[in-house]
Amino acid sequence: MNKRVFNTLLCSSLRSLHSHSKFSPHHLRPISTSSEDNTLEGLIHPDDPFFHDSSPPTTCLTNEYSFLRNTLINSTSHSSPNLDDSSGECSSNDEEVALMSNAIRNCNDGFGIETQKSFRRFRGRLSEKLVIQVMNRVKNPELCVRFFLWAGRQIGYAHTPQVYNELLDVMGCGGGDGRVPNKLLREIRDDDKELLHKLLNFLIQKCCRNGLWNMALEELGRLKDLGYKASRTTYNALVRVFLEAGKLDTAYLVHKEMSNSGFVMDGYTLSCFAYTLCKAGRCRDALTLIETEAFVPDTVFYNRMITGLCEASLFEEAMGILDRMRSNSCIPNVVTYRILLSGCLRKGQLGRCKRILTTMITEGCYPNRDMFNSLVHAYCKSGDYSYAYKLSKKMPKCGCRPGYLLYNILIGSICSNEELPSSDVLELAEKAYDEMLDSGVVLNKVNVSNFARCLCGAGKFDKAFKIICEMMSKGFIPDDSTYSKVIGFLCDASKVEKAFSLFEEMKRNGVVPSVYTYTILIDSFCKAGLIQQAHKWFDEMLRDGCTPNVVTYTALIHAYLKARKVFDANKLFEMMLLEGCKPNVVTYTALIDGHCKAGQIEKACQIYARMRGDVETSDMDMYFQLDDNDCERPNVITYGALVDGLCKANRVKQARELLDTMSTQGCVPNQIVYDALIDGFCKAGKLEDAQEVFAKMSENGYSPNLYTYSSLIDCLFRDKRLDLVLRVLSKMQESSCAPNVVIYTEMIDGLCKVGKTDEAYKLMLKMEEKGCCPNVVTYTAMIDGFGKSGKIEQCLEILRDMCSKDCAPNFITYRVLINHCCSFGLLDEAHRLLDEMKQTYWPRHISSHRKVIEGFSREFIASIGLLDEMSENESVPVDSLYRILIDNFVRAGKLEVALNLFEEISSSPIPAVGNKYLYTSLIESLSLANKVDKAFELYANMVSKNVVPELSTFVHLIKGLTRVGKWQEALQLSDSICQMDIHWLYDEETRAN
């Protein structure tokens, strides 16, 4: 040792001696160097082998004052009269650590007598922290062991568990093979056998705490080989580590050895054993173990057992433990019930949860808010929204009020599903919402949108709008996304007017619409046929600096093409390209579909061919100006649009070839493509081809739907293949595809057309039995069938039946029935029906007429003579009814009624040219009835309305004059006709005359 270091050590020793000089020797309690007196009461288990026999005075403290033990022992172990509270304490301690560790590392005698003598001045400063820091710096296992042994012999200091832990770390426990070298253990045994006993027990416990059960077993074996016994604490630690490792059998063996050694498990270890046995489904073994240990469980112990049983889904056994608790005067607490509820919730035992909750509340144990939230979430997830709502009503009685989370869970669960909730479930959400408002709570942004969507789906559009306003009053600020979603819901429900109002409200609230909002509105209004308003919003977007995207352009272009406004569509497409907005496959698909619907099937085919890169046509250059080399390839929707267009243009062969092209291009046809092709073949009368596609569709995994069956049935009836219709119906039943009103109506109409009206009527009754109500088209087809079969009474009966079932007849129904009544001479009934029709339905405009005939097949419309009349510009075909009635009243000789009907139709806004036939027919009838004066009045009225008479009209007038003997007037009229420079177009009637 050099002189400088020696002087430093000497000065430190002198200071130490001076600081001790104020204490008399008798003030120092004699402490044995043997480890038997170095107890650590309160820090470790009383049965720990480190400390036996004698104890410091603190062990005499009663349990009431046990909290003082740690304080007293810590003050004994860690304090020293040599340490002051000056600010230099930390630096002084660091200096001592440095001095001691350097001295140990530099000692020449291996921490021999000379080194120990030099360390005497540090004895009064020894503490847990100091010893640990020195060993941590020295790191040398052999030197640390010797320092540890020296420190343990010093008066006023005792090793703590932390010191033992540090020594074991330095000795190599947990590193390499994890085993402490035997030579170090032998050195400790040679110094103090009992100390080694304690160290080995501590080593086993340390392995257990680290989960190293295999190493703990090896150390237990070494402990026994050295002639030592494990302590109670060690056995408890071993039992716990094997339980945690799931090695129940080994834990039992350790417990058996422990019992043979005269030890019993502590309460915590026994509770772990019981928990593990219960979790393994061995509840009886757990109870037997408790009896063997003569242990009296408390509530906490039973709760551990119930936890294990719940994790094993043994809920009956868990309830049995609950009963045992009560029989042993151990009262279940709120934790007991929460464990049961949590276990049942995790395993989906919701029925049991209800019983537990009822018992729990009855016994005065109330769930907290978190448990209520979990319960509500579980019942909502299971679809039991009614009970979830009842739980929210129970919360105030249990001392907690529903909060933000619960209301959002309840309303969000009801409204977040893609399928709309039923009316009663939605009503629960509305009740919860009203209660939420009273509590001053708001929904989050997602739930506001979902709730509004469900209300819109239920037709409660005003309430959906009101919700947004109420949330705003509570501080919730809807953004563009929220407004856009609600606007989208309204548009999907065809409530475009309300969507427009909400959009205006959005702008008034200062929320700037995004391209997404504008696009929703533009697309929805385009689909509703309101293209002009859609284009106004498009212009507004541009004016406000909101750049349209490809979806916006595509929606408008498609709408213009469907409306046959190809020029406007092309103009918009050019603008799209100028703005650098690249068309995508959806755009090109919209172009193909739009051109098909506009009747320009060739252009649609050219666009498709250009997409595939097959042809170069200058006509299509405008659509492919951007990235011509990287053109969008057609997808299944593109093919579907073109197949549908080709089929509707009666080019089914080309459509069938397109199906084969799809397969070669690796594009798998979907249900829509197959349905369009089947429908096309059916309408073209190619049943065998339709059946072939039907078989191909089934082979590729697609099941026929109502649309598929509808096409086949319609075709089969047209071909009078009733036998195959029955096979199709059987196929539908096998596929659990119940016919809808369209299919039933097709079958009823088909049966009527082949004269099987009785079977058709039975089918109509059958569809009602099946819960499918006939509509106006169904009833009208049945009326027409009975009429053509001569069963006029049944026709009138069906009219009365449909009216009694709140199915109002429309214009076509009246037209068919009036026509049949006239055919059977029931003119008064026909006249009554006309009066009834005028009170209930009187189409004033061609658009109204078009709406009326929706749902009827083209063949049916043609069969009753409406197809040609529809093509007349703004011509309302109601005059055909008057023509039928007037003709029949004329034939019946009731000219007065016929004239009254004619005056009525003449006063209507129907163009006079539409009454030309009526004028001619009435003039002829009046002439034949010798009412020439009235015939000439009618002729004058005809001319005044610029209706050009036919030659036959003059012939009838001349004949009428001759009938009443007015030959002179007849000759004058005949001469006048001859003087006219008119090239007459003779009709068949004139030629006959």
TrEMBL record:
Where does the chain cross the membrane? none
Do the record's keywords include Repeat? yes
Its signal peptide is none
Keywords attached to this Swiss-Prot or TrEMBL record, sorted alphabetically, are:
Repeat
**UniProt xrefs under Pfam families:** PPR (PF01535), PPR_1 (PF12854), PPR_2 (PF13041), PPR_3 (PF13812)
PPR repeat spans: 231-265, 298-332, 333-367, 368-402, 444-478, 479-513, 514-548, 549-583, 584-614, 635-669, 670-704, 705-739, 740-774, 775-809, 810-840, 915-949
Q: Key word Kinase present in the record?
A: no
Give coiled-coil spans as residue ranges.
none
Q: Which InterPro entries does UniProt cross-reference here?
A: PPR_rpt (IPR002885), TPR-like_helical_dom_sf (IPR011990)
Q: Which domain of life is it from?
A: Eukaryota
Q: What is the protein name stated in its UniProt record?
A: Pentatricopeptide repeat protein
Q: Which organism is it from?
A: Crotalaria pallida (Smooth rattlebox)
